[in-house]
Specification:
With about 170 residues, the protein is α/β, with parallel strands linked by helices. The protein has a single domain, classed as Rossmann fold. Helices cover about 40% and strands about 30% of the residues.
Length: about 170
């Protein structure tokens, strides 16, 4: 696979989360594997990551890009929908998603309940979205914030102009 530059928006979001060496991270919608690679580089010792995607192509790309992390036992990648996920790590410290429409385009009460059950007190759900379409940003903020708040999370907003990213952060 050709070496690709990690998109600035992904780098910003992962930096924002301040992943710690012993974190247990769930990524929803792993797609290209860029975020999984960055996150796994920060995991040492007992840190683990579980990455999921509904797309077989996304799972394949992540496995290929992150083969060393999978081999080292830091990363598990599965093709599955969040609604049917039974997280093997019962003690998540962070959940990460970038441009996952589920959280703002439809009812995701069950998925948010699953996350609330699995995230440790003090842990966070970090939902990031590309903010290059300003006409959608307010709807994304409103709907995703409501979903997390209704699910028992304390919510705050994080933004970046360069790169243009908006984050809805839910703390447990």
């Amino acid at each position: 696979m050709a070496v690709q530059t990690i998109p600035a928006r992904i780098r910003w979001a992962v930096d924002f989360m301040e992943v710690q060496p012993n974190d247990h991270v769930l990524e929803i919608g792993c797609g290209s594997g860029h975020a999984a690679d960055l996150i796994c580089r920060r995991l040492e010792g007992k840190g683990k990551m579980f990455a999921i995607d509904r797309s077989e192509a996304g799972v394949d790309r992540t496995r290929q890009r992150c083969a060393a992390h999978v081999e080292a036992g830091r990363l598990t990648v599965r093709q599955i929908d969040l609604a049917t996920l039974r997280v093997p790590v019962k003690r998540l410290t962070k959940v990460f998603a970038f441009n996952v429409n589920l959280f703002w385009v439809r009812d995701c009460k069950n998925e948010v309940a699953l996350l609330h059950e699995r995230v440790l007190p003090g842990g966070s759900v970090n939902l990031f979205f590309d903010a290059t379409r300003p006409d959608q940003v307010q709807e994304i903020l409103t709907n995703a914030s409501r979903a997390l708040t209704d699910g028992g999370f304390r919510v705050y907003i994080a933004t970046s102009d360069k790169p243009p990213v908006v984050g809805i952060i839910g703390r447990r």
